[in-house]
């Protein structure tokens, strides 16, 4: 019903507008007494066979919501009720910022993809931390791991980027279970320059120093672009080893337009932005496999990019990922996506078992 009736209706409206409308409606509906419990019975699979212990955290299942969907930590309860084992909020920046001018989110229906140039639009790390602390006090029995994806403000020069990351790290420290350092979005000018070996090593080393000063440290992961060369991926492997961070998220959106089925004129008219969804599936899997093989499985990888089915999720796990995340496919496939993937794992309808992390 979702793909035949609801999705065509949603696609008649501007992508960003309908995102806010649907998420507002979701929050309103699940706030009605009893509805949240019904939703959990429908969508949450509570089965110990799905549990995954990765970088010291026990995830109730291996399917998470990637950063970008819940930028301001407004939807952690609701996404948990829809069966996600973990939710990554953000990307958040120290100060609120509006992001890039609209329109900035576009559908590639022929490709099962999106192009976005949102530009880290968010309300700031402080308000996000406050909402997460409120959630922690009102979990209502929900078992969900929370990640905090952090970035720099657009007007912060790269030379001062570390301070931005430290501010958000400190603000969210007691509110999230793990951190993700985002230096791979294509939509903040100059941000990807921080992926180069020297500045990235400096940034991660400083965050780890701050992290280790705490009585109990938090796992820090690095989110990387799919557009890195093998040489740059080799640098990532070295940096992970040198800095001692917990792992990598592969991958962010791509600036490549290769292989798209959408009319080239339409794509050209959309302009700049990162491509997500099905067009990213193959490349993100290649990156996961390369990192896993070249490092000898030295660190956990969260796989994200083009996961529309249990088979897609298994492809990432077989390539070396320990967990997976979705975003674009949730829009195309509907609210039952996490349950369908987890159900397939439990039923053995995908080709292999969950890997050992």
Automatic annotation (TrEMBL):
Cellular compartments annotated: Cell membrane; Membrane
PROSITE patterns according to UniProt: DHODEHASE_1, DHODEHASE_2
Residues noted as binding FMN in the record, renumbered to the chain: 67-71, 91, 149, 182, 223, 251, 277, 306, 327-328
EC supergroup of this enzyme: oxidoreductase
Molecular-function GO terms, alphabetical: dihydroorotate dehydrogenase (quinone) activity
Cofactor descriptive note: Binds 1 FMN per subunit.
Positions annotated to bind substrate: 71, 116-120, 182, 187, 252-253
UniProt topology in membrane: Peripheral membrane protein
Domain Dihydroorotate dehydrogenase catalytic, chain residue ranges per copy: 50-343
Cofactor requirements of the protein: FMN
Pathway(s) annotated for this protein in UniProt: Pyrimidine metabolism; UMP biosynthesis via de novo pathway; orotate from (S)-dihydroorotate (quinone route): step 1/1
Reaction equation(s) it catalyzes: (S)-dihydroorotate + a quinone = orotate + a quinol
Keyword field contains DNA-binding: no
Alphabetical UniProt keywords: Cell membrane, Flavoprotein, FMN, Membrane, Oxidoreductase, Pyrimidine biosynthesis
Job of this protein: Catalyzes the conversion of dihydroorotate to orotate with quinone as electron acceptor.
Subunit and partners: Monomer.
HAMAP family, alphabetized: DHO_dh_type2
Descriptive protein name: Dihydroorotate dehydrogenase (quinone)
Species annotation: Spirosoma aureum
């Amino acid at each position: 019903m979702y793909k035949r009736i609801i999705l065509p209706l949603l696609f008649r409206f501007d992508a960003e507008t309908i995102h806010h409308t649907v998420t507002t409606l979701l929050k309103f509906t699940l706030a009605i007494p009893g509805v949240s419990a019904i939703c959990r019975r429908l969508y949450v699979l509570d089965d110990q066979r799905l549990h995954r212990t990765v970088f010291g955290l026990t995830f109730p299942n291996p399917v998470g919501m990637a950063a970008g969907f819940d930028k301001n930590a407004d939807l952690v309860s609701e996404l948990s009720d829809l069966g996600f084992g973990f939710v990554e909020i953000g990307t958040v920046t120290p100060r609120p910022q509006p992001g890039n001018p609209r329109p900035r989110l576009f559908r590639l229906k022929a490709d099962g993809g999106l192009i976005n140039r949102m530009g880290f639009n968010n309300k700031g790390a402080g308000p996000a931390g406050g909402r997460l602390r409120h959630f922690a006090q009102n979990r209502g029995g929900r078992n969900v791991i929370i990640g905090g994806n952090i970035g720099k403000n657009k007007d912060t020069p790269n030379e001062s980027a570390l301070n931005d990351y430290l501010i958000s790290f400190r603000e969210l420290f007691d509110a999230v279970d793990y951190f993700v350092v985002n230096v791979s979005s294509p939509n903040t000018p100059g941000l990807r320059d921080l992926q180069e070996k020297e500045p990235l090593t400096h940034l991660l080393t400083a965050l780890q120093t701050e992290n280790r000063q705490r009585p109990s440290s938090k796992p820090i992961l690095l989110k990387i672009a799919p557009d890195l060369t093998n040489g740059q991926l080799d640098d990532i492997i070295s940096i992970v080893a040198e800095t001692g961070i917990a792992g990598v998220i592969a991958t962010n959106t791509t600036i490549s337009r290769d292989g798209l089925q959408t009319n080239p004129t339409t794509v050209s008219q959309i302009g700049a932005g990162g491509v997500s969804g099905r067009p990213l599936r193959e490349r993100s899997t290649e990156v996961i496999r390369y990192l896993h093989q070249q490092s000898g499985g030295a660190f956990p990888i969260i796989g994200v990019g083009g996961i529309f089915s249990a088979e897609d999720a298994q492809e990432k796990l077989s390539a070396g990922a320990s967990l997976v995340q979705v975003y674009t496919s949730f829009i195309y496939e509907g609210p039952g996506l996490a349950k369908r993937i987890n159900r397939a794992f439990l039923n053995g309808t995908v080709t292999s078992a969950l890997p050992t992390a």
